[in-house]
Amino acid sequence: MADSSFFSDLFYVFAQLALIFIDTFLFAVELRYCISWFLNVNPYFEPLFSLWCLTEPVFTLGKDVYPRLFGLQFSALINFRIIGIVQKVLDQYVKTSRSNRMHEYYISQIEASNLDLPNLDSILPISLHLNLDFLDNFNNFL
Known about the structure:
Elements: H1 2-35, H2 48-60, H3 75-113, H4 120-141
């Protein structure tokens, strides 16, 4: 039991780290894409050269695999979308795992504290009775 918890915690940490890396990488790709629109920017000087080297696989990977449509190369857009899908899947996993962990933590804290919580069953009929009286008075008014 402890091993599965350890491995799930380890996978959760790796998922968070991968999500941070992918978020940063997608920001770098978007930055390169925006900079490439300016014709007078020379990408062969620092810091742009490092940016170009880091993001080049997104723009060149799959040029031979993906088909050209109307003479346009869509490999960069397809690769960017694939990375975005991976980012959404990891983000969903991290969010649901975090909420499950917080829920388990709060339940364990409540169970450990042995608080006397109010019984909601004794409160509910009173509120229903008040609402029904309000509706009866409202119907008599009409």
